[in-house]
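Please predict the structure of the following assembly.
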Amino acid sequence: MSQKSWANTCHFLSSMIEIEFLGYFADLVGCKKATIKIRKGKVKDLLEFFPKILEVPKENIIVLVNGIAAKLETDVKEGDKIAVMPPIGGG
Amino acid sequence: MKGWTGKILFYNLSKAKFKVWEYGGDFAGKYVGGRGFAVRILWERAAGIDPLSPANPLIFAAGPLTGLPGPSTGKLVVASKSPLTGGYGDGNLGSLAALHLRWSGFDALVVEGKARKPSYLYIENGKAELLDAEDLWGLDTFAAERKLKERHGKNPGILVVGPAAERGVLYSTIISQEGRAGGRPGIGTVMALKNLKAVVFKGTKQPEIYDKQRYNKLVAEAYRDIEAKPNYEFWIRQGTMAAIQWSQANSVLPTYNFSEGIFDHADKISGDVMEKIKVERRGCPLCNMQCGNVIHDSDSMPAELDYENVALLGSNLGIGDLREVAVLNRIADMLGLDTISLGNTIGFAIEAGERGLLKDVPEWGDSKAVRELVEDIAYGRTELGKMLAQGVKRAAKAVGNGAEKIAMHVKGLEVSGYDCHASPAMALAYGTSPIGAHHKDAWIISWEVQTERLGYTREKVEKLIWMQRIRGGVFETLVSCRLPWVELGFDLDWYLKLFSAATGFSVTMGYLYEVADRVYALIRSYWVREYGGWSREMDRPPAKWFEQPLTKGPYKGAKLSWDGYEKMLSWYYNIRGWDERGVPRISTLRKLGLDDVAKELGKHVPLSE
């Protein structure tokens, strides 16, 4: 079987905010996890680092901040864990 | 008629005779196929019967798109009065049998009565024959199907039941192609009780298509459209297994008998782990996005995985080893047990053991002991196995001492793979599903996560009903797989085009929604008649989600509110045109062209105007 392999982690400067990409979003950005240096900002500021994700229609992007659903305007700060994923259909 | 064959085969096993009903365009137009045909036939032929008696019709129903070339149209509805719930029961499986049923000249097969000895039905090009199955009885589903292939050639459509059904386990399914399963509410049990081990279909004539040239052109474009979807390549790699990680991230992964929504070992049973050890992909005929992922299980045997069976036999039982989960799934398929109900009943037993309500049960994560229990259930080897074979509702009643509080079911059907402590709309989806707690009619969590997740709003109820109309109505009556739409975003408009090219009738989505509403009202009427009445509590999800909050994760402390749920349930009834008890109103039934149903139902329960 053909299998896709990802780099484990993309590093942008130093470890401040951790972002995990689920589903085919990991394919789009080329890694499953990234760490980004932003002391504070908004979810949309983080996504700026990933232009491929921004090409996806907004309603097809789910963002969780520390496991809770967030919006593009939600504030994020150092130490937060972010997960970015597409919606799924639930079988 | 074009698209439909216009024929339904009725086979009476007691008399070993068949007759063919040539139905007209009115019936087709009103019910379309699949679930629509099944519920109308049950309404007329299965009133007040014991589901475990020979009088219970066993129905295999296709729709106008089934078996025609087209994306994921190799599906079949199987239905009966459910021995597990006592109400309407159906399931849907992908199989060559779907194609060959239609190619042998029929849109549905209805099996009635009981054969004198173990038998199987052989249906080929308009004819049906009852053959001896003494040598197949007792065989597991894989072995039985292989034997039938030796007898009837490599590629007929074969549906079989396993040892679990033969011994009356109430959540036995019908299996095909060593991994396709359908009929959660005990439809396999009904089949075995008729002494029917298998049905073999062999046909050579595709139903006539109204505009074949246009149809074929559409189909080629449709397949290409699916393959061009942005998540297609990822889907091919992981299929539904990607949902393990997704559900974990969103705190809905069933864990420890639906006590939690996250599992500490989820990363060991995820789609990523599966992808690394995957050896093969399997699926249904006519599908270009096959979702069956095969790995070698811990017995080194090929075993197929999907989200539901990994969630229920993995995290829900505390088992964090994918190859061990794969063994349990393979054995369940071989024995013909529904993996969802199995994961529930065993989870219930483990939790009951933890609470001191049951003795000599496995512990969380003990896959070896669970495996032994699976076989005890299928073969009725122990008292515990026999009790759990009756499903979680009856088992909880037998255990007593408050065990009902940890029994995860709605109307007697065990809950499928999504925890609802923090998902009110999904809880309503389970509460109002027409077969009991199953997700196929509506799965609303992605949408719910993106809105006011913990809220109880009318908007959620409207969205839920819209989903039921499409998933439970359109796809279950056309009889085509919903996954191209739900998972890859394949546009619903394709189905209108295919329907029109196949049948010659140009219809709108509004027409298909009306059929869906008619089918829903009839299914609900069937439940009400068979139960001799109805009350709201029948549409309530398990008490655990309301009374025992999550203890970890981002939604720690979350639980559902009874008041909020009741509010949503009232909106649900109101939009559907059902009264406050959940019974369809006379005006609703009339509006849907079900005047005869209103008249008949009114003899059993008082109806509201």
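The mean pLDDT of chain B is 98. Chain B touches chain A at residues 230-231, 233-235, 237, 240, 242-243, 245-246, 249-251, 275-276, 278-281, 306-308, 418, 439-440, 443-447, 449-450, 453, 482-483, 485-487, 553-555 (CB under 8 Å).
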